[in-house]
Each structure stands twice: as structure tokens, then as C-alpha cells.
Design goal:
This protein has helices at 3-16, 22-30, 62-71, 89-95, 108-120, 161-165, and strands at residues 51-52, 58-59, 79-83, 100-105, 126-130, 147-152, 167-179, 182-191, 194-203. It has a single domain (3-203), classed as 3-Layer(aba) Sandwich (Rossmann fold). Strands 5-4-3-6-7-8-9 form a 7-stranded mixed sheet. A two-stranded antiparallel ribbon has the order 1-2. With 214 residues, it is of the alpha/beta class. It is 27% helix and 28% strand. It binds S-adenosyl-L-homocysteine (SAH). S-adenosyl-L-homocysteine binds at residues 57-60, 83-84, 86-87, 89-90, 104-107, 110, 132-134, 153-154, 206, 208-210.
């Protein structure tokens, strides 16, 4: 079956599994996942499962990405921070919806690979950084403002306090929290200056590697 047809089936599958945010479904309908998958796994591009990418990392499961994106209630005016660029697939899904995406990846080969694919795909609203995303988007790098939405694509052992500081008023962060045996997706909102934390579904991500500190 052509990739295009497989992509339509994936969108239908996401919808049947409870993803109703039209903005999210349209992004999945638009972005070719096969462009972000290693060539030996291309035939599995539209299976609703994570797949290996370089350096023992994974391209996330479409359903999990869709769920996290739905929790963010994304708007076209949003400035979004993504931690864990990985293959760049989720970056493409986000950047096709929002005004501006800042994405941080700790492994240089993955970031450089994603930069190449995303630039070739024509994205002009993505800022890339290679470094430790535990600390977020450090002030030394433009843009300097806080983020409307933050999405962390690797498992943190606790909610990273530096990332909480970078959530704008009215903003939302999704972050998997827990150890290697499994995590819970945490949804952190900033309302009237206060942080509200809700625990959502169980999930399984590769670990967020960092230097320590909260
Ligand atoms: N959304 C990506 C997920 C990639 S897996 C995709 O679908 O392709 C998670 C990624 O987080 C890996 O690429 C890993 O290298 C990266 N990562 C782990 N710890 C990190 C950190 N402290 N800062 C930035 N990226 C990190």
C-alpha cells in the first residue's frame, strides 16, 4: 500500500483510539513519518509503535505523540519548546501547527540528522540546539521569552524545575516522570503564577540523561 494511504489509516486509527483534536489529526495527515524512520524500518513507518533510530534511541509511538500533543491544546500562535528532537518527526508535527518551535537534543548526530530532514522539508520556524534540555532553552539563546507549551520526549526522574520556570502564564508542559520500568505522563500548568500538576496516563520513554540537579 502507498505511504499516503497508510498515513490515512494511521490517522483513522488515532481517531478510533480517542484522539479528537482536529489540529493534531491534521498534522499526522500531513507529515510523512517514513522520512524520519531508518531505511531498514521504512516498511513499518505507519505501524502505531515506536521504532529504533540511531544511538539506541526511538522515534516515539504515534499514539503517544498524539496524546501528548492533545494535552497541550496547541494553537497557531504558540511558541513551543521540545526536549528530545530525536528523529525530528514530532518536531515536524509540532512545527506544522505552531508559530515557533525551539527543539533541544543532547546527541549531536541525531540533532544534525533531524536538522537536515526538517530543513529539506522546508520548515523555517524551528530553532535547533544541541545540548542538555534538562535546563530548557537557556537565556543566552534567542528567543528569550517563556514558552506557551513544553513537550518532553524522554523520561525524567522528577519534574525538571528549570523547565517549570520556562512555562509562560497560561502555559502547559507535558513530561513523562519515572524510572526505566515505566513512567506516568505529568501535565503541568501555570495558572495565575501557580503550578498545577496532574498525573495522566502510564507511558514508556527512553531516559532523559542529564548532569543532575533539579
Ligand atoms: N520525539 C522524538 C523522540 C526521540 S527519543 C522522536 O519521535 O523521534 C528521546 C530523545 O531525547 C533521544 O533522541 C535522546 O537522545 C534525547 N534526550 C535524552 N536526554 C536528553 C536531554 N537531557 N536533553 C535533550 N535531549 C535528550
Amino acid at each position: 500500500m502507498r505511504y499516503e494511504d497508510q498515513r490515512k489509516l494511521l490517522v483513522q486509527d488515532l481517531h478510533q483510539r480517542g484522539i479528537v483534536d482536529e489540529v493534531v489529526l491534521q498534522a499526522f495527515a500531513r507529515i510523512p513519518r517514513e522520512d524520519y524512520v531508518l531505511k531498514e524500518y521504512k516498511e513499518y513507518s505507519y505501524r502505531n509503535q515506536p521504532l529504533p533510530i540511531q544511538s539506541e534511541q526511538t522515534i516515539s509511538q504515534p499514539l503517544m505523540i498524539a496524546l501528548m500533543m492533545s494535552k497541550l491544546h496547541l494553537k497557531s500562535s504558540d511558541r513551543v519548546l521540545e526536549i528530545g528532537t530525536g528523529s525530528g518527526y514530532q518536531s515536524a508535527l509540532l512545527a506544522t501547527i505552531v508559530a515557533e518551535l525551539c527543539t533541544v537534543e543532547v546527541l549531536d548526530n541525531l540533532s544534525l540528522g533531524a536538522q537536515k530532514v526538517l530543513k529539506a522539508a522546508g520548515f523555517r520556524n524551528i530553532h535547533f540546539r544541541i545540548g542538555d534540555g534538562w535546563r530548557g532553552w537557556e537565556k543566552a539563546y534567542p528567543p528569550h521569552k517563556d514558552f506557551d507549551k513544553i513537550i518532553v520526549s524522554a523520561a525524567a526522574d522528577c519534574i525538571p524545575s528549570r523547565l517549570c520556570e520556562q512555562i509562560a502564564e497560561g502555559g502547559i508542559m507535558v513530561v513523562p516522570v519515572g524510572g526505566s520500568s515505566g513512567q506516568i505522563l505529568n501535565v503541568v500548568k501555570r495558572q495565575n503564577g501557580e503550578l498545577i500538576v496532574e498525573q495522566d496516563v502510564p507511558c514508556a520513554f527512553v531516559p532523559l540523561v542529564h548532569q543532575g540537579g533539579r
